[in-house]
Each structure stands twice: as C-alpha cells, then as structure tokens.
TrEMBL record:
Cellular component, GO annotation: cytoplasm
Record-linked Gene3D superfamilies: 3.60.21.10
Alphabetical list of PANTHER family matching this protein: BLL5683 PROTEIN (PTHR42850:SF2), METALLOPHOSPHOESTERASE (PTHR42850)
Protein name (database record): Calcineurin-like phosphoesterase domain-containing protein
Domain Calcineurin-like phosphoesterase: 1-198
One Pfam family here: Metallophos_2
GO molecular function, one term: phosphatase activity
Superkingdom of origin organism: Archaea
Organism: Candidatus Marsarchaeota G2 archaeon OSP_D
C-alpha cells in the first residue's frame, strides 16, 4: 500500500493539484495547515474533503476555525493574521470551517499492521511544537501529551516546512516538508510516500505553475508590504 503523506499546503491550490496529478497512492495522510497565506483556501479545503484523508489539525486550521491566534513563528505572525483576516476567513464557508474544526489534534492510524502516530507539530505539543532532525536528542519528545510513550512504530510530523526522515529510540520519524510553501534549502514543495509493503519511505520534490500563484498574489493582495512578503514566502519572486 502506498500512503501519500503531505502537510502545510497553505491554500496553494496550484501546488496541491500538481502533487495529486503526478503521484499514485492508495491512502492519504494530511498533517495539517490547509489554510492561511495562500490565495485559494476554499478550493484547497474542497480538494482535501474529496480526498477523505486521515488527518490532523494544524495551528493555522485551528486559528481559522476557532477564531484564536495561530502562535506561529514571530517573523510570519503579522503576515498570517493579515491573510487570515483578508483572504482565509473571507473565502471559507461555514461548512469549510466546520471541516477544518473536525480534524483531531493528533492521529493514531494503522495500515497493513503498520501503526502510525501523526501530529502537526510534535508528539508532546501537537499544534505548536517544532521538531527538527537536529533537535531529536531526547526520548521524551516521543511521549504523548499525557507523558506516556508512543506505541506506534512510525511518527509523522509537519509544521516546520522542513523535509526529513530519521530514526531515533526505535521510532521512524518522517516530516514530508511543505507541499505548498517549502522553507528549507529547496524551493520546490515536497511530500512523502510511505510504502507498507516493504516499510520504505520516499521523500519527493515537485514543481507547479508558480506563475499562477504569483499573479494572484500580485492582483489580489492589496497591501504592498504584505504582497512583497507573500511573494518571498512562497518563493515566487523573480
């Protein structure tokens, strides 16, 4: 079984469509942050809904659906608030917000006897924790919010927009990176394929019609400073 694992699409419908057109899969796991920053939140939610994925809630999904702060990194906080107020909440319907709100804070799945734990952030801080490979040095990061050790063999995380896979303390840890807004050394979005037949993990990069996203940001974001910051954040500047 091929499981598509992706995260942090951030309303980049063009990247999401490109990903789904290029990859074959049997099941889908989405690690949160469907909305904010990007220009097409409603269409993004529609596509996610049609996929019927196993999913968890991201901090931006939580902020939009419950009207609270997203507590994202300080350098992007003002931008996230601006896009949430001026794009996300203006486009999303009540049913869209309800769909986002229905996602669990953490997920525990099983495919072909492979047990998987899924979090947007980290096991101990599912919405807001940042788990980079160089921070995985203490086994307590693999305890639940109640402090109990995780029982699953595979741990999926997102939130950092940084793609990696590593093993530690008996766990296989996978971050598919961001399928809509990468922030690591590669400007291309990323995702992972988890194959339960042989328990292999593939990290993939792809590109998409970024000129379409660039055009929308230029024409639909009225505030010049925010427009320039979005172009840079999505890496669609010349």
């Amino acid at each position: 079984m091929r499981i598509l694992v992706f995260s942090d699409i951030h309303a980049n419908i063009y990247a999401l469509r490109a990903l789904l057109e290029r990859e074959r899969f049997d099941e889908v796991v989405f690690l949160g942050d469907a909305v904010d920053y990007g220009t097409r939140p409603s269409e993004t939610v529609d596509v996610l809904r049609s996929l019927k994925p196993r999913r968890v809630m991201g901090n931006h999904d939580h902020a939009a659906s419950f009207g609270v702060d997203c507590y994202c990194a300080q350098e992007n906080h003002e931008l996230s608030v601006y896009t949430r107020q001026n794009i996300t909440l203006k486009q999303l319907s009540k049913s869209d917000l309800a769909f986002l709100a229905q996602a669990p804070i953490e997920g525990h799945f099983e495919f072909d006897n492979l047990k998987i734990a899924a979090f947007h952030g980290s096991p101990s801080e599912p919405l807001y924790g940042y788990l980079y490979p160089w921070l995985i040095s203490k086994s307590e990061v693999f305890t639940s919010t109640l402090g109990a050790p995780l029982e699953e063999q595979v741990v999926l995380v997102g939130h950092t927009h940084y793609s990696f896979t590593t093993s530690f303390a008996g766990y296989r840890v996978i971050n598919p990176g961001s399928a809509g807004q990468p922030r690591d050394e590669d400007i291309r979005p990323s995702y992972a394929i988890l194959n339960t037949d042989n328990t292999t993990i593939e990290l993939h990069r792809f590109d998409y019609p970024r000129d379409l996203l660039k055009k929308e940001i230029l024409t639909e974001v009225e505030q010049p400073e925010m427009r320039a910051r979005l172009l840079k954040l999505f890496r669609v500047t010349p």
